Write the C-alpha coordinates for this entry.
Amino acid sequence: MRKIVIFCFVMMGIGGCLATGWASTPIGVATAPSAFRVDRATVQGNATVFDGTTLETMNSDSAVRLNNGASVKLGAGSRAKLFTDRLVLERGEGRLERAAGVKIETQNLLISLEGASPAAAVSVSKPGSVRVAALAGGVNVRTTEGVLIARLEPGTALELQPQAGASAPISVSGCLSSQFGNKFTLKDETANVTFEVRGTDLAKYAGQRVAIKASAIPQVTGDKGTSQVVQVLEIKVLGGGCPTPIGKDASGGNKSTGAAKTAAVSAGTKKAIIAGVVIAAAAGGAAVGLTGEDKEAKSISR
Protein backbone atom coordinates (compact mmCIF):
# COMPACT_ATOMS: atom_id res chain seq x y z
CA MET A 1 0.00 0.00 0.00
CA ARG A 2 1.33 3.43 -0.88
CA LYS A 3 2.16 5.59 2.14
CA ILE A 4 2.07 9.36 2.44
CA VAL A 5 4.77 11.27 4.32
CA ILE A 6 4.40 14.99 5.03
CA PHE A 7 7.55 17.02 5.60
CA CYS A 8 7.16 20.42 7.22
CA PHE A 9 10.02 22.90 7.15
CA VAL A 10 10.99 26.49 7.85
CA MET A 11 13.58 28.10 5.60
CA MET A 12 14.38 31.75 5.02
CA GLY A 13 11.21 32.75 6.83
CA ILE A 14 8.98 30.62 4.59
CA GLY A 15 7.12 27.66 6.01
CA GLY A 16 5.51 24.90 4.06
CA CYS A 17 4.61 21.23 3.83
CA LEU A 18 5.55 18.68 1.22
CA ALA A 19 3.64 15.44 0.74
CA THR A 20 5.46 12.55 -0.86
CA GLY A 21 4.48 9.01 -1.66
CA TRP A 22 5.98 5.84 -3.08
CA ALA A 23 4.98 2.43 -4.39
CA SER A 24 2.94 2.58 -7.61
CA THR A 25 3.85 4.26 -10.89
CA PRO A 26 2.59 7.84 -11.33
CA ILE A 27 -0.43 8.09 -13.63
CA GLY A 28 -0.65 11.87 -13.99
CA VAL A 29 -0.39 15.32 -12.45
CA ALA A 30 -3.09 17.35 -10.66
CA THR A 31 -3.07 21.15 -10.59
CA ALA A 32 -5.24 23.78 -8.86
CA PRO A 33 -5.00 27.55 -8.31
CA SER A 34 -5.41 27.07 -4.55
CA ALA A 35 -4.84 24.40 -1.93
CA PHE A 36 -6.30 20.92 -2.38
CA ARG A 37 -5.89 17.55 -0.67
CA VAL A 38 -4.14 14.47 -1.98
CA ASP A 39 -4.71 11.38 0.16
CA ARG A 40 -5.67 13.75 3.03
CA ALA A 41 -2.44 15.74 2.70
CA THR A 42 -2.91 19.43 1.82
CA VAL A 43 -0.79 20.56 -1.12
CA GLN A 44 -0.35 23.76 -3.13
CA GLY A 45 -0.03 24.18 -6.88
CA ASN A 46 0.35 20.66 -8.23
CA ALA A 47 0.84 17.05 -7.18
CA THR A 48 1.74 13.74 -8.72
CA VAL A 49 -1.22 11.35 -8.96
CA PHE A 50 -0.75 7.62 -8.41
CA ASP A 51 -3.11 4.72 -9.14
CA GLY A 52 -5.70 4.92 -6.34
CA THR A 53 -4.94 8.49 -5.25
CA THR A 54 -7.83 10.30 -3.52
CA LEU A 55 -8.10 13.90 -4.69
CA GLU A 56 -10.24 16.39 -2.76
CA THR A 57 -10.77 19.96 -3.97
CA MET A 58 -11.48 22.82 -1.60
CA ASN A 59 -12.24 26.34 -2.85
CA SER A 60 -11.41 25.90 -6.54
CA ASP A 61 -11.59 23.45 -9.42
CA SER A 62 -8.71 21.05 -10.03
CA ALA A 63 -7.42 19.69 -13.35
CA VAL A 64 -5.68 16.34 -13.74
CA ARG A 65 -3.71 15.44 -16.85
CA LEU A 66 -3.39 11.65 -16.99
CA ASN A 67 -0.44 10.01 -18.72
CA ASN A 68 -2.82 8.16 -21.06
CA GLY A 69 -3.92 11.50 -22.55
CA ALA A 70 -7.22 11.83 -20.70
CA SER A 71 -8.12 15.06 -18.91
CA VAL A 72 -10.03 15.08 -15.62
CA LYS A 73 -11.55 18.13 -13.97
CA LEU A 74 -13.06 18.22 -10.49
CA GLY A 75 -15.31 21.05 -9.33
CA ALA A 76 -14.74 22.90 -6.07
CA GLY A 77 -15.78 20.86 -3.04
CA SER A 78 -15.45 17.52 -4.88
CA ARG A 79 -13.76 14.28 -3.93
CA ALA A 80 -12.75 11.40 -6.20
CA LYS A 81 -10.39 8.46 -6.34
CA LEU A 82 -8.28 8.29 -9.51
CA PHE A 83 -7.13 5.19 -11.37
CA THR A 84 -5.58 4.68 -14.80
CA ASP A 85 -8.86 3.48 -16.28
CA ARG A 86 -11.53 5.06 -14.07
CA LEU A 87 -12.57 7.93 -11.84
CA VAL A 88 -14.54 7.01 -8.72
CA LEU A 89 -16.56 10.13 -7.90
CA GLU A 90 -17.57 10.28 -4.25
CA ARG A 91 -18.84 13.85 -4.06
CA GLY A 92 -19.30 16.91 -6.26
CA GLU A 93 -18.62 17.25 -9.99
CA GLY A 94 -16.26 15.45 -12.33
CA ARG A 95 -15.57 15.97 -16.02
CA LEU A 96 -13.68 13.67 -18.42
CA GLU A 97 -12.27 14.79 -21.76
CA ARG A 98 -10.35 12.81 -24.39
CA ALA A 99 -11.19 9.84 -22.22
CA ALA A 100 -11.97 6.86 -24.47
CA GLY A 101 -11.55 3.76 -22.32
CA VAL A 102 -11.82 5.67 -19.02
CA LYS A 103 -14.96 5.18 -16.91
CA ILE A 104 -16.64 7.09 -14.11
CA GLU A 105 -18.03 5.14 -11.16
CA THR A 106 -20.49 6.69 -8.72
CA GLN A 107 -23.53 5.66 -6.67
CA ASN A 108 -23.34 2.07 -8.02
CA LEU A 109 -23.40 3.31 -11.63
CA LEU A 110 -20.75 2.78 -14.32
CA ILE A 111 -20.48 5.55 -16.92
CA SER A 112 -18.46 4.88 -20.08
CA LEU A 113 -17.65 7.15 -23.03
CA GLU A 114 -17.68 6.41 -26.74
CA GLY A 115 -16.13 8.12 -29.75
CA ALA A 116 -12.74 9.35 -30.91
CA SER A 117 -12.52 12.28 -28.46
CA PRO A 118 -15.40 11.89 -26.00
CA ALA A 119 -16.24 14.14 -23.06
CA ALA A 120 -18.76 13.80 -20.23
CA ALA A 121 -19.66 15.55 -16.99
CA VAL A 122 -21.04 13.79 -13.92
CA SER A 123 -22.20 15.35 -10.67
CA VAL A 124 -23.45 14.00 -7.36
CA SER A 125 -25.55 16.82 -5.95
CA LYS A 126 -26.84 14.73 -3.05
CA PRO A 127 -26.61 11.09 -2.00
CA GLY A 128 -28.64 8.95 -4.38
CA SER A 129 -28.88 11.51 -7.19
CA VAL A 130 -26.52 11.57 -10.19
CA ARG A 131 -26.53 13.94 -13.17
CA VAL A 132 -24.83 12.74 -16.36
CA ALA A 133 -24.19 14.98 -19.37
CA ALA A 134 -22.73 13.88 -22.72
CA LEU A 135 -20.59 16.77 -23.97
CA ALA A 136 -18.93 15.06 -26.94
CA GLY A 137 -19.40 11.53 -28.22
CA GLY A 138 -21.85 9.05 -26.73
CA VAL A 139 -22.19 8.07 -23.08
CA ASN A 140 -23.50 4.75 -21.74
CA VAL A 141 -24.69 4.20 -18.17
CA ARG A 142 -24.77 0.73 -16.64
CA THR A 143 -25.42 -0.74 -13.24
CA THR A 144 -22.57 -2.43 -11.40
CA GLU A 145 -24.10 -5.70 -12.64
CA GLY A 146 -23.54 -4.54 -16.21
CA VAL A 147 -27.14 -3.78 -17.20
CA LEU A 148 -27.33 -0.95 -19.74
CA ILE A 149 -29.87 1.56 -18.39
CA ALA A 150 -29.22 4.73 -20.42
CA ARG A 151 -27.56 5.82 -23.63
CA LEU A 152 -26.90 9.54 -24.06
CA GLU A 153 -26.32 11.32 -27.35
CA PRO A 154 -23.99 14.37 -27.46
CA GLY A 155 -25.61 17.46 -25.94
CA THR A 156 -28.07 15.57 -23.73
CA ALA A 157 -28.22 15.05 -19.96
CA LEU A 158 -30.08 12.78 -17.55
CA GLU A 159 -30.81 12.66 -13.82
CA LEU A 160 -30.50 9.18 -12.31
CA GLN A 161 -31.63 8.07 -8.88
CA PRO A 162 -30.64 4.52 -7.90
CA GLN A 163 -33.21 3.10 -5.51
CA ALA A 164 -32.59 0.82 -2.57
CA GLY A 165 -32.91 -2.64 -4.07
CA ALA A 166 -33.78 -3.29 -7.72
CA SER A 167 -37.09 -5.14 -7.35
CA ALA A 168 -39.30 -2.40 -8.82
CA PRO A 169 -40.85 -3.28 -12.22
CA ILE A 170 -39.25 -1.81 -15.32
CA SER A 171 -41.31 1.20 -16.46
CA VAL A 172 -40.58 2.49 -19.98
CA SER A 173 -42.41 4.12 -22.87
CA GLY A 174 -41.95 4.46 -26.60
CA CYS A 175 -43.01 3.04 -29.93
CA LEU A 176 -43.61 -0.71 -30.01
CA SER A 177 -42.06 -2.08 -33.19
CA SER A 178 -42.73 -5.47 -34.75
CA GLN A 179 -39.80 -7.49 -36.07
CA PHE A 180 -40.66 -10.32 -38.48
CA GLY A 181 -44.21 -10.38 -37.14
CA ASN A 182 -43.42 -12.26 -33.93
CA LYS A 183 -40.71 -10.24 -32.20
CA PHE A 184 -41.30 -6.85 -30.61
CA THR A 185 -38.94 -4.12 -29.47
CA LEU A 186 -39.35 -0.79 -27.69
CA LYS A 187 -36.83 2.03 -27.38
CA ASP A 188 -37.49 4.07 -24.26
CA GLU A 189 -37.91 7.77 -25.05
CA THR A 190 -36.08 8.96 -21.94
CA ALA A 191 -33.23 6.47 -21.47
CA ASN A 192 -32.72 5.84 -25.22
CA VAL A 193 -32.34 2.11 -24.51
CA THR A 194 -33.99 -0.67 -26.54
CA PHE A 195 -35.77 -3.69 -25.03
CA GLU A 196 -37.02 -6.91 -26.55
CA VAL A 197 -40.62 -7.12 -25.33
CA ARG A 198 -42.55 -10.34 -24.78
CA GLY A 199 -46.19 -10.81 -23.82
CA THR A 200 -49.64 -11.71 -25.08
CA ASP A 201 -51.55 -9.80 -27.79
CA LEU A 202 -48.65 -7.47 -28.48
CA ALA A 203 -49.38 -7.41 -32.20
CA LYS A 204 -52.37 -5.12 -31.68
CA TYR A 205 -50.11 -2.51 -30.10
CA ALA A 206 -47.45 -2.62 -32.82
CA GLY A 207 -46.79 0.77 -34.39
CA GLN A 208 -48.25 2.65 -31.41
CA ARG A 209 -46.69 4.61 -28.56
CA VAL A 210 -47.17 2.66 -25.37
CA ALA A 211 -46.15 2.71 -21.73
CA ILE A 212 -45.30 -0.64 -20.24
CA LYS A 213 -44.47 -2.09 -16.87
CA ALA A 214 -42.43 -5.23 -17.20
CA SER A 215 -40.06 -7.59 -15.47
CA ALA A 216 -36.67 -8.64 -16.81
CA ILE A 217 -36.47 -12.25 -17.94
CA PRO A 218 -33.33 -13.59 -16.23
CA GLN A 219 -30.60 -15.39 -18.17
CA VAL A 220 -32.18 -14.54 -21.52
CA THR A 221 -30.21 -12.43 -24.00
CA GLY A 222 -31.88 -10.48 -26.77
CA ASP A 223 -30.57 -9.56 -30.19
CA LYS A 224 -27.63 -7.19 -30.58
CA GLY A 225 -28.65 -3.65 -29.68
CA THR A 226 -31.13 -4.63 -26.96
CA SER A 227 -30.43 -4.06 -23.29
CA GLN A 228 -32.76 -6.65 -21.78
CA VAL A 229 -35.53 -9.07 -22.66
CA VAL A 230 -38.64 -8.21 -20.62
CA GLN A 231 -42.06 -9.72 -19.94
CA VAL A 232 -44.95 -7.25 -20.06
CA LEU A 233 -47.00 -6.92 -16.87
CA GLU A 234 -49.08 -3.90 -17.92
CA ILE A 235 -49.41 -1.98 -21.17
CA LYS A 236 -51.35 1.13 -22.18
CA VAL A 237 -51.51 3.25 -25.31
CA LEU A 238 -50.16 6.81 -25.11
CA GLY A 239 -51.05 9.85 -27.19
CA GLY A 240 -48.75 11.45 -29.71
CA GLY A 241 -48.42 8.61 -32.18
CA CYS A 242 -45.29 7.00 -33.59
CA PRO A 243 -43.06 8.61 -36.22
CA THR A 244 -44.30 7.79 -39.71
CA PRO A 245 -41.73 5.95 -41.87
CA ILE A 246 -41.14 7.69 -45.20
CA GLY A 247 -38.23 5.62 -46.48
CA LYS A 248 -34.93 4.08 -45.52
CA ASP A 249 -31.87 5.96 -44.40
CA ALA A 250 -28.29 5.10 -45.25
CA SER A 251 -28.03 2.62 -42.39
CA GLY A 252 -31.14 0.74 -43.49
CA GLY A 253 -33.36 2.19 -40.75
CA ASN A 254 -36.60 4.06 -41.16
CA LYS A 255 -36.64 7.79 -41.73
CA SER A 256 -39.46 9.73 -40.08
CA THR A 257 -41.06 13.09 -40.52
CA GLY A 258 -39.85 15.85 -38.19
CA ALA A 259 -43.41 16.72 -37.15
CA ALA A 260 -44.09 13.16 -36.05
CA LYS A 261 -40.87 13.05 -34.05
CA THR A 262 -41.71 16.32 -32.32
CA ALA A 263 -45.19 15.07 -31.43
CA ALA A 264 -43.80 11.89 -29.92
CA VAL A 265 -41.21 13.70 -27.81
CA SER A 266 -43.64 16.35 -26.55
CA ALA A 267 -46.02 13.63 -25.42
CA GLY A 268 -43.26 11.69 -23.63
CA THR A 269 -43.70 10.38 -20.13
CA LYS A 270 -40.48 12.13 -18.94
CA LYS A 271 -39.35 9.30 -16.64
CA ALA A 272 -38.29 5.68 -16.82
CA ILE A 273 -37.42 3.05 -14.22
CA ILE A 274 -34.83 0.49 -15.31
CA ALA A 275 -33.01 -1.98 -13.04
CA GLY A 276 -34.20 -0.07 -9.98
CA VAL A 277 -32.93 3.32 -11.25
CA VAL A 278 -35.29 6.25 -11.83
CA ILE A 279 -34.20 8.11 -14.99
CA ALA A 280 -35.41 11.55 -16.08
CA ALA A 281 -34.32 14.26 -18.50
CA ALA A 282 -32.10 16.79 -16.71
CA ALA A 283 -33.08 20.44 -16.53
CA GLY A 284 -30.66 22.70 -18.36
CA GLY A 285 -29.49 20.06 -20.82
CA ALA A 286 -25.75 19.35 -20.97
CA ALA A 287 -24.67 22.63 -19.32
CA VAL A 288 -21.93 22.10 -16.73
CA GLY A 289 -20.57 24.25 -13.92
CA LEU A 290 -16.86 23.49 -14.19
CA THR A 291 -14.74 26.39 -15.37
CA GLY A 292 -11.15 27.13 -16.12
CA GLU A 293 -8.68 25.96 -18.74
CA ASP A 294 -6.67 22.75 -18.52
CA LYS A 295 -3.09 23.88 -18.03
CA GLU A 296 0.10 21.99 -18.65
CA ALA A 297 1.57 20.67 -15.42
CA LYS A 298 5.30 20.42 -14.95
CA SER A 299 6.78 20.48 -11.42
CA ILE A 300 5.41 18.21 -8.70
CA SER A 301 4.93 18.66 -4.99
CA ARG A 302 4.45 15.14 -3.73
User: Anything to note?
Assistant: The first helix runs from residue 258 to 266. The two ends are 16 Å apart (CA to CA).
